[in-house]
Structures are given as C-alpha cells and as structure tokens.
C-alpha cells in the first residue's frame, strides 16, 4: 500500500520505523532478528536508509596510498526485500542522488517496481567525507527536487516522500529559503514530508505552520529519535545541525551512569511523542538506528 494512502486512511496517529542496513558481512537473519521486537507493534511501514559509497585510502606496498570507493553497507534494496519476505510489511527504500547517475537511479526504481514496491523517500544525500560542498555525479542530480520530478515523470504511480528540516538544512541561508526549496519538492510531485529529528517540539510546530503559510499542503510527519548515550549530546548536533534543548542536556549532565542517560533519553522521547499525538500529527517516524530496546519502550508507552 502507498504511504500516502496509509496516512489518508488512518484515523489516529500511527508509528513508522526507519532502519539502517547493516555493514556488509552481517547476515539477513541477524538483521531481521534484531528488528523482530519492533515488528510486534505492527508498524505500518519500514523505511530503509541508503548509503553512498565511501572513499578509503588503501596502503600500497611502497608506502603510498591509493584512493578507492567502497560500499560499506548492504544495499537498501536487498534489505527491503528481506524485510518484505519475512514480515510482509510495506517498505520504503530511500533513494539518494549522491554518487549516482540519473540512469542508475532509474534502473533502481524499475527494480523496485518489479519487487512490488511503490514507495520511496527521495533525498539528495550528503557530501563525501572531506568534501566541503555537495558535488553531483556527472549525469546525476544536484537537488532532491530534480529526483522527485524525474521519478514522478517516469513512474507516475510511485508514492514519493521527501525530507525536511524544522531547524533548517545546514546549507540553507535561512529557514524561509529552505521552505521555498521544500515547496519545490512538493510542487515537483512529493506526496508527503518526513522531518529530520528534533528534541524540542516547538521547532516542529513553528516549522509546520510556516510550511502551511508557504502553501505546502501535504502531510508532514515528525521524525523522532530517543537519545540513548551521553556522547550523542555532542554527536547529534554536529551530525544533523540540530539543538539539544537545555531541559534535556541539563538532566543528562546530572545522570550518574549510562543507564540513567538511557532512561532520561527514552522518557524525553515518550513525552515528545505524547505531545505530538495530542497535537494531531498523522504519524511519528521513529529513527531506530536498528536498535530496538528504547524504541520498544516508546512504542509501548505511546501507541
Ligand atoms: P535537498 O532538498 O536537495 O536540499 C539540500 C539543500 O539544497 C538545502 O539546503 C536546500 O535548501 C537547498 N536546495 C534544494 N533545492 C534547491 C534549488 N533548486 N536551488 C538551490 N538550493 C536548493 N541521507 C542519506 O545519505 N541516506 C538516507 O537514507 C537519508 N535519509 C534521510 C531521511 C530523512 C527523513 C531526512 C530528513 C534526511 C535523510 N538523509 C539521508 C540526509 C539527507 O540526504 C541530507 O540532509 C542532505 O544534505 C539533504 O538532502 P535533501 O533531500 O533534504 O536535499
């Protein structure tokens, strides 16, 4: 079923999950077993992230190095197929512009259609490590809006989600311009929006009302992640250009051990989800990072 139809036919807020494909060498049984505690909650669909090839420098015998691109993770298509087969649930593979040509992407989309998948999340992807600016692949796309437009043209029946940033995408000069660019994705044919994670719901509410004022009328689904380790207080703002609110960081600073940090992060996430549900969001998209314990607690408490 298409995500947009699931959203339209749902009478109350539901949960969707996002998982990250495992590193190569980890078997499908191990991955599927690791998400089985989450499947008990009957998620409506599972997103599978997509990861561009990474650059590594391999030592030569003479002491010099050679540059090589390698794929570190199992492909999103293979993981989506394994999940569908074991759990018979809808899957939403992410498709990124980064590192791909338009033809390569089209071929992947055609493969997804053969597999009976009619949902994707269309994204630009990030720079390679060490690059300052995003560089499109020759013959590829510069922005997610171009990808949306191409998929909408070639596969009119595909349901397309796109990403958005309540605290602004880090490259955008200001939130107004970023929302204008988001509208381009919607005008190009995106059916719904999923946001980057945030830890203060006020960012989401303000963003949502700015989007509506800008004429963006598709469903906007908040993306939420339970914070689980003390290191994430520094890592998440750096990786995703988001704020950790003082109310959360000060509680974490007083935590006695890792278990207390974990509980503070989970409780904060439960409170965020309850508030979003009361606000009437259509769904909550939980970033699981393929770890189930805290997400299970959030699902139990809120859905
Ligand atoms: P775009 O919408 O193309 O925007 C990128 C930047 O360009 C923004 O600053 C925007 O304001 C600007 N812009 C957009 N269009 C134009 C235009 N026409 N002219 C000028 N400026 C423009 N990354 C992965 O690699 N794999 C994943 O699986 C993945 N999953 C994600 C899931 C979600 C829900 C989200 C929110 C992000 C995800 N990302 C993923 C991260 C994403 O790829 C990065 O944040 C990336 O930097 C931007 O992607 P985008 O699709 O939002 O880009």
Structure description:
The protein is globular and about 50 Å long. Helix 6 (175-187) links the parallel strand 7 (159-164) and strand 8. The strands form two sheets. Strands 1-2-5-6-7-8-9-10 form an eight-stranded parallel barrel, surrounded by five helices. The protein has a two-stranded antiparallel ribbon with strand order 3-4. Helix 5 runs parallel beside helix 6 (175-187) and helix 10 packs parallel to helix 11. 43% of the residues lie in helices and 18% in strands. It is α/β, with parallel strands linked by helices. It contains eleven helices and ten strands. The chain has helices at residues 3-9, 28-39, 76-87, 102-114, 144-154, 175-187, 201-213, 232-240, 246-253, 258-279, 293-302; strands at residues 14-19, 45-48, 54-59, 65-70, 90-96, 119-123, 159-164, 192-197, 220-224, 283-287. The chain binds flavin-adenine dinucleotide.
Strand and helix layout:
Layout: H1 3-9, E1 14-19, H2 28-39, E2 45-48, E3 54-59, E4 65-70, H3 76-87, E5 90-96, H4 102-114, E6 119-123, H5 144-154, E7 159-164, H6 175-187, E8 192-197, H7 201-213, E9 220-224, H8 232-240, H9 246-253, H10 258-279, E10 283-287, H11 293-302
Parallel strand pairs: 1-2, 1-10, 2-5, 5-6, 6-7, 7-8, 8-9, 9-10
Antiparallel strand pairs: 3-4
Flavin-adenine dinucleotide (FAD) binds next to β5, β6, α5, α6 and β8.
């Amino acid at each position: 079923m298409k995500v947009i139809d699931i959203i339209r036919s749902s009478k109350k807020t539901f949960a969707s999950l996002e998982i990250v494909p495992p590193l190569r060498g980890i078997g499908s049984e191990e991955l599927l077993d690791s998400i089985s505690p989450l499947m008990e909650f009957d998620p409506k669909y599972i997103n599978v992230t997509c990861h561009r090839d990474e650059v590594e420098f391999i030592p030569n015998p003479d002491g010099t190095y050679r540059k090589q691109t390698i794929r570190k993770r199992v492909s999103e298509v293979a993981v989506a197929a394994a999940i569908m087969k074991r759990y018979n649930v809808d899957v939403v593979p992410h498709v990124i512009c980064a590192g791909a040509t338009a033809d390569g992407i089209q071929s992947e989309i055609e493969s997804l259609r053969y597999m009976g998948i009619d949902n994707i999340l269309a994204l630009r992807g990030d720079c390679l490590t060490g690059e300052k600016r995003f560089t499109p692949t020759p013959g590829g796309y510069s922005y997610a809006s171009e990808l949306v437009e191409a998929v909408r043209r070639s596969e009119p029946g595909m349901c397309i989600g796109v990403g958005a940033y309540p605290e602004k995408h880090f490259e955008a000069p200001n939130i107004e311009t970023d929302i204008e660019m988001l509208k381009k994705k919607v005008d190009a044919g995106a059916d719904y929006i999923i946001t980057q994670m945030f830890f203060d719901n006020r960012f989401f509410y303000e963003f949502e009302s700015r989007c509506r004022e800008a004429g963006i009328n598709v469903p906007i689904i908040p993306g939420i992640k339970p914070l689980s380790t003390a290191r994430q207080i520094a890592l998440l703002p750096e990786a995703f250009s988001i704020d950790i609110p003082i109310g959360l960081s000060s509680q974490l600073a007083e935590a006695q051990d890792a278990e207390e940090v974990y509980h503070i992060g989970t409780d904060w996430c439960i409170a965020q989800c309850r508030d979003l549900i009361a606000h009437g969001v259509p769904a909550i998209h939980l970033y699981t990072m393929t770890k189930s314990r805290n997400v299970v607690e959030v699902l139990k408490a809120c859905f």
